[in-house]
Amino acid sequence: MCLAVPGKIVETYQADGLKMGKVDFGGVVRETCLEYVPQAEVGDYVVIHVGFAISMVSEEEAQATLETLREIMRLGEELGPEPDMQ
Amino acid sequence: MKHITEYRDADLVHGVLDEIRQTVTKPWVLMEICGGQTHAIVRHGIDQLLPPEIELVHGPGCPVCVTPVELIDKSLAIAAYPEVIFTSYGDMLRVPGSGRDLFSVRASVGDVRVVYSPLDAVKIAQNNPDREVVFFAIGFETTAPPNAMSVVQAQRLGLKNYSILVSHVRVPPAMHVILDSPHNRVQGFLAAGHVCAVMGYWEYPPIAEKYGVPIVVTGFEPLDIVQGILQATRQLEEGRCEAENAYSRVVTFEGNRPAQKLIERVFEPCDRKWRGIGIIPGSGWRLRQEFAEFDAELRFDVEAIQPEESPLCIAGQILQGLKKPHDCSVFGLKCTPERPLGATMVSSEGACAAYYRYGR
């Protein structure tokens, strides 16, 4: 139920008094309500749940997280497995 | 797909799993709150890749599972009215009420339609002015803003034939119930990322402090989940208990203020019964008085329902992390996704359905 997926806004418009948009999920485009992300513009990534954008995706935070996790992996590889003390 | 593919990188996931193995020295029990996370964990086999010290128990974050059977029975009664078009998220159709489910109502007398969004239900009401359109508004904090918007939109459009059957629930009161239980085993939480996308996580530091449990806001892709587990494990090993955010690309501390404001405008807190668990004070939302005309429970006469639950189903204990699906005597035997006794075997977020589907 709380499943939500990120997609890219490709169009915004007003319909029945609501800020709406078309959002591209890797080739599949669906209509989405953008009322809860008033600052969102075409090109932004948003997280969509039951036809509503509930959050923006922060590119900076995404990059920072991935960099931290890559660093963890690199350190693990450099240190190698723990020596087997017999 | 951007913002998904990167978080399914097997090398990175294994790198973080290695780090968890390096970090852990003692056994710890973590609960992932959200049923969507339960399914991701079991589907990707994360539970089997973790070091044996880390045990994951599955939380109550499955709205379909915790919707009380009385309300399912009410939905069945309303859906059977000839003037009604009953609309719902697809997950609800196979959830057993006392006797039957929405599917069987659809097959016999009712006009029951699956919608993707509550705004679709509003459109159906616009297009069918001579019918009563009812939307089954279940869900946690994530789903409350869309459901609230549907009511505001129906009001703006002057629709007199739209109403919602509300069964909203909130996560933090359920965390209190789990942690207050004398049988509680949970030592740390992976908080539900999309609930926090809406609500933020400002409600969690007091819970972390009061009960001495780390709470880590966690996403839904494999890398998100192992990152959440790593952060919770580090806290436990270091003797810390803080609210942290492992899903910062989507979640902020404050959450989505416009969404919170609309929830507050449309809904007010109420006590709510959770299927299998019982009444949790202050754990629900109901429509405020000024939106009473959109309340399906007031619009349709559906009192005097005597709900019946299967005495064999242990879903309530599973949803509180006290038992696992395979502890149930009827799991996979008398209770299967084709003939479910409890909602946890039906929902795409139910722990029993996940265990059955992925062979745990």
At the fourth level of CATH, the homologous superfamily of the largest domain in chain B is HypD, alpha/beta domain 2
Strand order in the sheet with the most strands of chain A: 3-2-1-4-5
The portion of residues assigned to helices of chain B is 25-40%
Greatest interface = A-B, 40 and 59 residues
Description:
The complex is a heterodimer of chains A (86) and B (360). With 86 residues, chain A is α+β, with helices and mostly antiparallel strands. Chain A has 1 helix and 5 strands. Chain A has a single domain, classed as SH3 type barrels, CATH 2.30.30. Helix content of chain A is 24%, strand content 41%. The longest helix of chain A has 21 residues, at 59-79. Chain A is elongated and about 60 Å long. Chain B has 2 domains: 1-309, HypD, alpha/beta domain 2 (Rossmann fold); 315-357, no CATH class. Helix content of chain B is 39%, strand content 19%. Chain B has 360 residues and is of the alpha/beta class. In chain B, the strands form 2 sheets. In chain B, strands 4-3-5-6-11-10 form a 6-stranded mixed sheet, sandwiched between helices. Chain B has a 5-stranded parallel sheet with strand order 2-1-7-8-9. Chains A and B meet through strand 1, strand 4, strand 5 and helix 1 of A and helix 1, helix 7, helix 8, helix 10 and helix 12 of B.
Labels describing this entry:
heterodimer; A: 86 residues; alpha+beta; SH3 type barrels; five-stranded antiparallel sheet; 1 helix; elongated; B: 360 residues; alpha/beta; Rossmann fold; six-stranded mixed sheet; five-stranded parallel sheet; 16 helices; 39% helix; 19% strand
